Amino acid sequence: MARADLILDLVEAERRGDRDKFRVLVEAVISEERANQHHLLADRLSEIITTSGNSLVRDDHAVALRDLAKEVVPKRRLSDLELAPVPRRVVSELVEEQRRADLLRSYGIEPRNRLLLSGPPGNGKTSVAEAIASELMLPFYVIRYEGVISSFLGETASRIDSAFEFARTRRCVLFFDELDTIAKERSDEHETGEIKRVVSTLLLQIDQLPPHVVLIGATNHSELLDRAAWRRFQIRAELSTPSRSQATQFLEKLAVRLGGDLGFTPRTLADKLAGASFAELEEFALDVRRRTVLEMPDSDVRRIVQERLEHRRDQAVA
Hints:
Strand content: 5-15%
Number of strands: 6
Helix content: 55-70%
Number of helices: 15
Structural class: alpha/beta
């Protein structure tokens, strides 16, 4: 059964005629009922407040969901990630606020639920989003741009509406990778009116997103984001290329996880791979380990590492 405070707030919102607040509260009730496995009640409530008025059963296996987003099983925890102090703090605070939302609400405060991650590719934006979903034990939905973006005028905005409508009635983490794809700066004279309508739709949906849905956006090019979209995110964190100490710690964990020697000490290897992203460090270590296993029992790990380093340098020059 829905929390007593939600029911009281629902009645108060209806008494005041605050339809927007009433809808947000009903969506919160639907989310809680789904969490309690009361899917029939949740589906019925969802039908009642759905603007289209159809009787589509909105469950985790709905065709609409498969078209617009895919559910990913998180494989990372925050403890698995090497983050700089500031990003680690802000991400940890977001997780704590969501976990202790009832305490905050008892003081009339809602937890923050919108996080923007920026920085060069390969430095953990997707991994951070996965880890947040894992820490909160929530479903993790990744927006499928091939399903959302349409060549037909006006259809993209409608599909964005549908994706958010689905998410609003669930406690979940909704992840927009490469957010600049659909949230481009509207003042750019080269952008079409259709793109501007899509951005406006996205902003409206973000504004209406209830606190029980954690929205995470990621971009490699924050300078391309519409300024209003950038401001919609309460928390912003930049994930930069790893420092020497971060790379060293990451390589130490990789060596343990892969169960083998990487040819050099992690610190020495971090120096030799200076400037590499976390993804590049992981791929390098996997490549070395893969070759080492295939050449057993006469593997020369140091030689394998040297060959990979030389290949990396040749690619950089080319």
